Every structure is written in structure tokens, then in C-alpha cells.
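look at this:
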Amino acid sequence: MDFLYNTNAQFFIAAYLIGGIPFGLLLAKKYAGVNIKTAGSGSIGATNVLRVVKETNPSLAKKLGIATLVLDAIKGVLVLAVAYFAGLSEATMWGISVLAVIGHCFSPYLNFEGGKGVATGMGVMMFMLPLETIIALGVWAFGAKFIRISSLSSLTALVALMVASFIIHPDMAHAPVIIIGFILFYKHIPNIIRLLKGEEKRVV
């Protein structure tokens, strides 16, 4: 158990445990009285919070959706910010980023189930690769406005971010970006299947 006294290990554990906090599930239960794990897509993310709560309370749905999005993004950034001011290496911070996303997608509080990882991934990428993330957010905003299919907008933005990272930072180690991208694509497999079948729902 000596590894628990290692600073990097402590931050990695914190990133996973904090990343795993299911804010969408908690907020929807407390303020709307619904269990989003058993409704809609079953995801704990902002899109499902918005979709499920909107059925009974549209105005509350927007507030809870925004709160979920912000909290899911911040939980990865929080650990990164502390690590940054503690003077930890860039490699360690990338490890924190990956584990925060893994925590959200495979939460220890939900029997290792979780959300799609988009907001948490966006948060850590904004901290680590701000320019690429701004580009991705622009792509996402375009898709959200004109395509109005949440999963397609998110996946398109993810591809834009990954491509931009290779162009803007060709010499950096891209393994963490690829790992995060793989996790997000993996969690979106059901959405991809529905997209190919033309069955994916639009956000209205």
C-alpha cells in the first residue's frame, strides 16, 4: 500500500473518484424526483437530464441540464488545477485527465457504469489543449444548432479536436488524447448504431 503515499497516485485516485460523481443522476433525483438511469437513454449526462426532465418540467430541465454540464466539466478541471499548482508534471496531468474521464464513464458509484464522457472530456481538454477545444466547441455549436443530434455533434467535435491536436501540437505525445477519444467513441457505440439506422433522436 506504499503507493498510496505517492503524490501522483493520490491525484490519480482523486481524479477517478471525483470524475465518477454522477451529478446528473443526483440533481435529477433531488430536484425533479426522477431516476435518469431508468429513463430516456439511461445516461447520466446533461442531454438525458434535459430530455427526461423536460417531459414534466421544461423550465427545470434547462436549469438541471446546464448545471449537469457545468459540474461534469468542472470535476475533471478541479483536480487538474490543484495538480498544476502543486507543480506536477504534464505527463501526470494527462494521466489525471484520462482517469477523470474514465471515472465519469465507468463510475465506481454506479457499478462501473456511467455517462458518455463528453462534458468531462471537454473540461479536461479545455485545461490541457485550450485552442483545440475552442475549435471543437465551435464545431459542436454548429452541429447543435443545425444538425440537432447531440451524439453526432459531440462525435464530430471530438474528431475536430483530435485532428486539431495533431496539427497544432505535432510533437506532443498524443496517446492520452487518443485514449480519451477512444473511450468517448466506445461509449457512443449505441448512438452510432442508431445514427447508421437513422433512428437517433434530435434534440428539440
User: Anything to note?
Assistant: The mean pLDDT is 91.
